[in-house]
Amino acid sequence: TRAFNFSAGPATLPESVLRQAQAEMLEWNGVGASVVEISHRSADFIALAERAEADLRQLLSIPDDYAVLFLAGGATTQQALLPLNFASPGQTVDVVVTGHWGKTAIKQAKPYVNVHIAADGEPGGFRDIPPRAQWQLSPDAAYVHITANETIHGIEFRDTPDVGEVPLFADFSSSIASEPLDVSRYGLIYAGAQKNLGPVGISVVIVRRDLLARAGQPRADIFNYASHAARDSMLNTPPTWNWYLLGLTVKWMLDEGGVAEFARRNAEKARLVYGAIDGSGGYYRNEVAPGVRSRMNIPFFLPDERLDALFVSESKAAGLLALKGHKAVGGIRASLYNAMPVAGAQALVDFMHDFAQRHG
Ligand code: PLP
């Protein structure tokens, strides 16, 4: 039996997607071979790739003046490729740091550009997003980078910030497709797939086409987004298995009712879990400012950290997996991506009530 899996990523996938992949593992689409055994340049695979892109465009309402890239590697890879592709040597890029992944974006960009921290939530312990009025943006920045949802610290932008003429680049790894999104507010959106879009090993980059004309920095062709766009993400052998699973996952989201439906479910799940925390009479604690609490990743604390291991082992025995908090934050963390049903959040809440009563 499959447990409710609260892993932050790689994360739970829809059971129907896994079942279909299992059924098609040996023979796919009448081609007499598995999808992992055929050429990415075959007509069958190209049709799959085009379908996945069309479905993703429909799911996220991606305008035509944006290219969609399907690239091998993770979000961290994209964090290094952004300055190479969109900033000239020595140019400034602005980064708004609201948690761990903003810091990795800085680390990956630093060898290539002048990184300016326009706002930093770290002095406040990453419990809030610095108010927009306090951001110190550079007028000549190549782009402004934000992390739409900080997976470890559990902080999420609930509105798209206005950064003026400079393109806004956003890491949506842990919240893409979780609610409707106005892509046109961004110059670039990127996401590693392993939370809401499918398996690890493939990333999606949604980029305004005019930005692809930027010279950037000297770089190998394989690190050039424009080359990938010109070759429909088949500059080299793409991760075909991952692309296939991503396509199935996107199709599943469309069939379930699209991002509006997932926004509804995700709000409901978050309401349940934050409700259990806030209604626990102080037994459970979430320290993030209410207005920026993540709907996807909910870190919380018990009254005594010596109870953490017991919470994790008892919840596991109750069929609730992977609730241990990230080591940078400690405590407990529940990740509630699109494939986590409301029933999973309800099961967690029931367990939390029960645990607090037994160990209160
Ligand atoms: N950005 C965010 C918001 C993440 O949650 C993660 C991974 O968990 C990453 C970046 C790094 O992704 P990857 O490990 O695929 O490079």
Automatic annotation (TrEMBL):
The modification N6-(pyridoxal phosphate)lysine is found at K195. It is found in: Cytoplasm. One of its GO terms (cellular component) is cytoplasm. L-glutamate binds at R41. Pathway: Cofactor biosynthesis; pyridoxine 5'-phosphate biosynthesis; pyridoxine 5'-phosphate from D-erythrose 4-phosphate: step 3/5; Amino-acid biosynthesis; L-serine biosynthesis; L-serine from 3-phospho-D-glycerate: step 2/3. Catalyzes the reversible conversion of 3-phosphohydroxypyruvate to phosphoserine and of 3-hydroxy-2-oxo-4-phosphonooxybutanoate to phosphohydroxythreonine. This is Phosphoserine aminotransferase. It comes from Stenotrophomonas panacihumi.
